[in-house]
Specification:
The chain is an alpha/beta fold and 631 residues long. It has helices at residues 33-47, 109-116, 129-146, 198-202, 211-216, 231-240, 298-308, 313-338, 340-350, 358-363, 374-378, 389-409, 415-425, 427-434, 441-459, 464-475, 528-535, 596-616, 620-630, and strands spanning 3-5, 12-14, 22-29, 55-62, 151-156, 160-166, 169-174, 179-182, 184-187, 205-207, 223-227, 247-250, 256-259, 266-270, 479-480, 488-492, 497-501, 506-509, 511-514, 559-561, 567-573. A six-stranded mixed β-sheet has the order 5-4-3-9-21-20, with helices on one face. The protein has a five-stranded parallel β-sheet with strand order 10-19-11-14-15. Strands 6-7-8 form a three-stranded antiparallel β-sheet.
């Protein structure tokens, strides 16, 4: 309450009698996990009374889908799994989030599952995505119940198709023609669909998602080709096997096998590398446990930024990253084969010797053929395996069986999986180096086309059960993935079939699914709002000089930047629309690790608080005018 005490009469004037609460209109466009994080922060700050007491916050949340869920739909099949273990998912901030002292207590996905179901739950399990959808929707309702009186939340079940700015007000229009005047805007939309060309739409060429569209029209007598061997392919395979009545089971030797329903098509999957993503290892870490870099530290990166301004990833950063990976691999190997004391002695020495002495140190403990070898991870296929299709297929089976065996040992106990987990654990440091064009243009291109595909294959693969399912489907004759490396495809107008030219053979298919998550550039997205913002000059694509990795251009404070280089201080962008200026945005918040998703949301809501409080504070002249009016 603004008060004035007259020195002579000692009476108090309450300005709220003359000045009613100031209505602040705020838009959150996109109510998936990123929009949910913004809402959570606004409510946390409001409950902590960080906003000026003379304001009311009217929050319009625009999303045609169930609020909170984003792309995690409630009607998904049970066999479609979240690719993150339950204990590593949350929507609530915590005290590890740097700079934030305002916390709303709430359960992680795993804790919510414990209350939601009567049976015991596994914190390290991968649960159905439909359950994650329910958790996210529950989280939205939970936050609404916690909102104080100054926060008025209004869901708008419409897509936003345009936004324009006049002075400090944003004019937002939804698909049904309704218009909203907003003081502040948060753009937090998620994954978008690619726009198929007319000739593509007329063929049986699909993006993987939505899965019910890409897979529903496929007949059992047909051949389907999947371009990709990653997470999306796991989803498509699940839809075309388990989703059609097939069953996986374990034989007496505990090897996973497949019993066909006879409704499955013949499936061919291929990728540039010729390899599926590596299986995620059994988790042996606590929710808050991460490897802390010894070499790729924030200080080391800061020193490189100061020295070079723009960093060359392959030259300046990759050697530090590989030192961390080799350190973890070697220490884990030595502990496994020589015990804890030997591993500790090695670790102490490795972290203190000179760079050129580390290799000789490793030789003292580990046979040469078992050393950490980055090149073998980048190119694991030996030359002899590419001599024929039979040799490649046999090698691939052995490779996948070994991958499952390593994954079963765990991400702490197995040397290779522990080293690959470093790529996940130090991702925030990698972001610190890359974000906002931190790399040279040529290095940024190399990262995008060379490093990220390898990182994805090694560190963000599916649960190990999915690799076992691939092996079982291969053995059952349902799935074929032995086309080799760098296959190419084209559409044959004469036969009306897709032709896949593999390294060893050419195969034709009735249907082709681009089995990957679409990441169209904003100007090619199906999102009308993104295209309108760019076309009308309120936004521009992000470029590192001449390289456009993707996404909208934003300031380091996440503010939208116009074509004319105007930074909109009252318009923030988070998540997928910033993939380009930011690195690896498509993640769910993780508890107790200063999650970048939670940290970014906290920063922009703190900026919102500062701007609202600065505007709502009356000037000294306004204060005195009210005093005299009171007299």
């Amino acid at each position: 309450m603004e008060e004035f005490i007259n020195q002579q009469t000692n009476f108090v004037i309450d300005f709220s009698k003359w000045i009613g609460p100031i209505a602040i209109d705020i838009a959150i466009v996109g109510a998936g996990p990123r929009g949910l994080s913004v809402l959570e922060r606004i409510i946390a700050f409001a409950r902590a009374k960080q906003f000026s007491p003379d304001v009311n916050l009217n929050i319009n949340i625009f999303d045609p889908n169930p609020l909170g869920a984003g792309c995690h739909y409630i009607d998904q099949a049970e066999h479609l799994l979240v690719n993150t273990i339950a204990s590593q998912i949350t929507i609530f901030s915590d005290h590890t989030v740097q700079g934030s002292g305002f916390i709303l207590d709430g359960p992680s996905f795993y804790e919510w599952l414990c209350d939601y179901t009567s049976s015991s739950q596994d914190p390290n399990a991968y649960y159905p995505r439909k359950l994650l959808c329910e958790y996210l929707q529950w989280g939205f309702r939970y936050l609404c119940e916690l909102a104080p009186e100054i926060v008025n939340i209004k869901p708008v079940a419409q897509r936003v198709v345009s936004a324009s700015c006049s002075l400090t007000t944003w004019y937002i229009q939804t698909e049904n023609g309704d218009k909203y005047h907003q003081d502040y805007v948060f753009l937090t939309t998620g994954h978008e669909q690619e726009i198929l060309q007319e000739n593509e739409a007329n063929r049986r060429l699909f993006s993987a998602y939505p899965l019910h569209i890409s897979t529903s029209g496929i007949q059992s007598h047909e051949t389907i080709a999947l371009e990709g061997l990653g997470l999306s392919t796991c989803d498509v395979l699940s839809m075309l096997t388990i989703g059609r009545g097939g069953k996986f089971f374990r034989n007496q030797e505990q090897v996973l096998c497949y019993q066909a329903s006879q409704k499955e098509p013949k499936i061919i999957a291929f990728s540039r590398s010729g390899l599926p993503l590596s299986a995620r290892a059994k988790n042996e870490k606590e929710a808050r446990e991460q490897y802390k870099a010894n070499f790729l530290t924030r200080k080391a990166i800061s020193d490189l930024k100061e020295k070079y301004q723009k960093i060359n990833f392959a030259v300046n950063l990759l050697p530090l990253l590989l030192n961390d990976m080799e350190f973890v691999y070697s220490k884990t190997y030595i502990k496994k084969h020589h015990g804890h004391i030997a591993a500790n002695i090695f670790a102490n020495a490795y972290l203190t010797v000179k760079d050129n002495e580390r290799k000789s140190l490793v030789v003292d403990y580990i046979p040469l053929q078992h050393h950490f070898n980055w090149e073998n991870l980048v190119n694991p296929i030996p030359p002899h395996a590419l001599e024929s299709q039979n040799k490649f297929n046999a090698w691939l089976d052995d490779y996948l069986v070994a991958d499952v065996r390593n994954a079963n040992e765990g991400n702490v106990s197995n040397p290779l999986k522990a080293a690959c987990d470093v790529l996940r654990d130090v991702r925030d440091n990698i972001r610190y180096a890359i974000d906002f064009a931190g790399l040279t243009e040529s290095s940024h291109r190399w990262l995008f086309y060379s490093f990220i595909p390898v990182m994805n294959r090694l560190a963000v693969g599916p649960p190990k059960i999915r690799i076992e399912e691939i092996l079982a489907l291969k053995k059952a004759g349902i799935l074929k993935i032995d086309l080799g490396i760098n296959p190419e495809w084209k559409f044959d107008e004469t036969s009306n079939l897709f032709v896949i030219n593999g390294q060893f053979e050419t195969i034709k298919s009735d249907v082709l699914i681009r089995s990957r998550i679409a990441m169209p550039s904003p100007q090619q997205s199906s999102n009308l709002l993104l295209r309108q913002l760019i076309n009308d000059g309120f936004a521009r694509p992000f470029f590192n000089k001449k390289f456009h990795p993707n996404g909208l251009d934003i300031s380091s404070d996440f503010n939208l930047i116009s074509r004319d280089n105007n930074v909109y201080q009252n318009f923030w962008v988070l998540g997928t629309p910033t993939e380009g200026a930011k690195f690896y945005t498509f993640i769910l918040p993780r508890p107790f690790v200063n999650s970048t998703a939670l940290l970014d949301a906290d920063r922009i809501v703190q900026s919102l608080v500062n701007q609202i409080n600065a505007k709502s504070a009356p000037s000294e002249h306004q204060r005195m005018e009210k005093v005299y009016e009171g007299k």
